[in-house]
Amino acid sequence: MNYATQMDAARKGIITNEMKAVAAYENRDVEDIRRWVAEGKVAIPANKNHKCIKPTGIGSMLKTKINVNLGVSKDVSDLDEELKKVQYAVDLGGDAIMDLSTHGDTKIFRRKLTSECPAMIGTVPIYDSVIYHQKDLGQLTAQDFLDVIRAHGEDGVDFVTLHCGLTKRTVEQLKRFGRTTNIVSRGGSLVFAWMSMTGNENPFFEYYDEILDICREYDMTISLGDGARPGCLADAGDILQIEELVRLGELTLRAWEKDVQVMVEGPGHVPLDQVKANMEIQQSLCHGAPFYVLGPIVTDIAAGYDHITAAIGGAVAAMSGAAFLCYVTPAEHLALPNADDVKEGIMASKIAAHAADIAKKIPGARDIDDRMGAARRKLDWDAMFENCMDPVHAKAVRDERAPEVEETCSMCGKFCAVRSMNKALAGEEVDIL
């Protein structure tokens, strides 16, 4: 190849196979895709070593994408079960899998993903650093962290979350101004702890140029982590969150100077009336780079139902400019999600993403809804199931509660409005009794 990254190719006027695949899936002109990649408004995370990937574009002008967090922990370490969840997530329509493993030989799961999974694969290298080097956090050096980033690049990881925006200044600000929930980002808390223990600057910030060289080598997209994202509504929009976002905007430009693709991560817990403003601020401060949001979660008190709070926030966020939704499951804040939680989280995120795509008037987004409307008018149940987001579940619900009158459902029976209107408009008698 006579280019280093997708962005490098786009800036040289080269249309790659990945750009062609994205254009075909998005029903967009491939020249538009190339231009947006060149400008940094669309990222196509596709590591050169991830041979089985289905290229996917991330940008606010494209269909909203969904990420699924998985991985083993010390308390739940069944690798086979986690691999089943991966396949389940892909089958349900997840666009990306983030391996957040924190236990065991993590490279086995990671390499399995990049050799077999067609979805984009993301990781958080700081999680893996302790395990990779078999050193506790305070014993790790800056070079140790860089070595892990390189290892993930070699293994075919498509994007890495790096908490580059937390600095010594963040430490000072947190101690000075305080927060209700301090830092809730797992990676952000580890960076903060490492700085506090060693007295050194954040290695992901201090050695950012070296990191960019590694990412350029493998065409690994940087997902600039929001280490200071608010973990409760009370912390939303505070000085730590906003100053970090300003710094991430500066780091975005530095990455683009080396043709490295960038996404920027965002909140977090945010009141519903502030979600739109958060998206607009990010678009301005981060120069239109794709925004990757966790939720946002719009209330703090729905533990066990946070897939719903996140879907509410996610729909508004995506409608207002977010490009990538990190799914949230009912187990958020409580436990490692099981297979049922994974499904609930994915379906909630898919609903949010689809609703936002309709609102943004993404080409073709509403077509399936219009087909569903026509099928409902005709009481064509087979067509309704075909156009459902989850046909198996929809059919199971109907079959479990079968109606007396086959053409209707058990909610209304012969009182069905659709049946009554069809008969009335056809000049037929509307029989109820």
Architecture overview:
- With 433 residues, this protein is α/β, with parallel strands linked by helices.
- Helices cover 50% and strands 8% of the residues.
- It folds into two domains: 6-360, TIM Barrel, CATH 3.20.20; 366-426, no CATH class.
- The chain contains 19 helices and eight strands.
- The chain has an eight-stranded parallel β-barrel with strand order 1-2-3-4-5-6-7-8, surrounded by seven helices.
- The chain is globular.
- The N and C termini lie far apart (74 Å).
- The mean pLDDT is 95.
N-C termini distance: 74 Å
Show unreliable segments. none
What's the architecture of the largest domain, going by CATH? Answer: Alpha-Beta Barrel
Quick one: CATH superfamily of the largest domain?
Answer: Radical SAM ThiC family, central domain
Count the domains.
2
Structural descriptors:
single chain; 433 residues; alpha/beta; TIM Barrel; 2 domains; 8-stranded parallel beta barrel; 50% helix; 4Fe-4S; S-adenosyl-L-methionine; 4 iron, 4 sulfur cluster binding; zinc
Task: Explain the layout of strands and helices.
Elements: H1 6-11, H2 17-26, H3 30-39, E1 65-70, H4 79-92, E2 96-99, H5 106-116, E3 120-123, H6 125-133, H7 142-154, E4 159-162, H8 168-177, H9 186-198, H10 203-206, H11 208-218, E5 221-224, H12 239-257, E6 262-266, H13 272-285, E7 291-294, H14 306-319, E8 324-326, H15 339-360, H16 367-378, H17 381-386, H18 391-400, H19 417-425
Parallel strand pairs: 1-2, 1-8, 2-3, 3-4, 4-5, 5-6, 6-7, 7-8
Helix pairs in contact: 2-3, 4-15, 6-7, 7-11, 13-14, 14-15
